[in-house]
Amino acid sequence: MTEPARILVVGGGYVGMYTALRLQRQLSAELRAGTAEIVVVTPEPYMTYQPFLPEAAAGSISPRHVVVPLRRVLDRCRVVIGEVRSVDHAKRTATLITLATEEEGTGSVEMTYDELVIAPGSVSRTLPVPGLADHGIGFKTVEEAIGLRNHVIEQMDIASSTRDPAIRDAALTFVFVGGGYAGVEALAELEDMARYTARYYHNIKPEDLRWVLVEASDRILPEVGEDMGRYAIRELRGRNIDVRLETRLESCEDRVAVLSDGTRLPTRTVVWTAGVKPAPVLAATDLPLNERGRLRCTPQLAVDGAEHAWAAGDAAAVPDVTSEEPGKECAPNAQHAVRQAKVLAENVAASLRGQPLKEYAHAYVGSVASLGLHKGVAHVYGRKLKGYPAWFMHRAYHLSRVPTFNRKARVLAEWTLSGLFKREIVSLGSLEHPRAEFELAAAPPPGDGDKPQS
Hints:
This protein is an alpha/beta fold.
């Protein structure tokens, strides 16, 4: 009996999930006949819809509705919770670790494949800023988003109860580094949430909170265009948010954020959203990379010069065939990733069947960004929108893009309920340390160790 053709999908994010989802439809006959199998290797058993992270942090959406369970959606795929450490495409093998290999202590295992779809996504791009590793907070995962929400409310609790003015000022100062989507939307949503929460503190007013956005370039939200970027700055500054352009974070040691303009900000909160870089696994392959560490790809989403290897999304440098500018590549964003995944899956299926491949071609239609509840900016199909219309478009667009009808219905229900009732202002910080209470209860009372045994 011949072995089934194995398609190995590395990563369960946008590209990984959508590619596998499309493949299990395209190859339904082969999967039923046992002549093909799809294996998805991913560190987490869910796909995170990252555009909803700011709203999850603000409490507008439940964290469980921001993620899509892969086993439910990819019911005809084999989902392996683990991490690919290296790929030897010449031998068609991937080296990976799983939860089981760690428990067994057997080290990594090798998996062979016939077709490789490499879509591990990206990781936060950090710089050697003193103190950043110790005090910085990221904003790429649902855990980080909820942790940041808990942290902000916890700082307000500290400020409300302390008698030390220095501790109070540091607790109520929030510094966000990076003026792209993640930084601006996270800051805007959390500022909205914190301003609302302040009404329930007897000694904290909204104007006591200090929000600072630090951006190294001369503009924010470059995707929505220069005019809408300037409007976003005016909107944020109108809410007493301190927007610092052409400024860098030099240090955040000893809970003091030192900026390149000489400003020193005592703070207990530094949120780092200053860009992303390709996942480290790309450097541990024998596949060709460009100068930015992304896989060189053809317009058909095949890895250039490597047969039976495919890539898309953050990991791939895909030529933009719709651009008149020579050498232009598709932006590594969700708009391209979802569409690339569809073409990639069709091309993998076509490759297995010996059929011709399609080129990926999609002209960028524009961008939308939220600036908090009922506020936003958009530049779509050449039209510029701001305020409520842009915010509504932002929600409508992302509701249409979040995977599965189940998630769409749940998110819409939550938005409807949040419009009828007051915001939730609960901090569940103990979720990050679930055994702390039990460990305290199980610990022997102080001094017990000195008593003689009976």
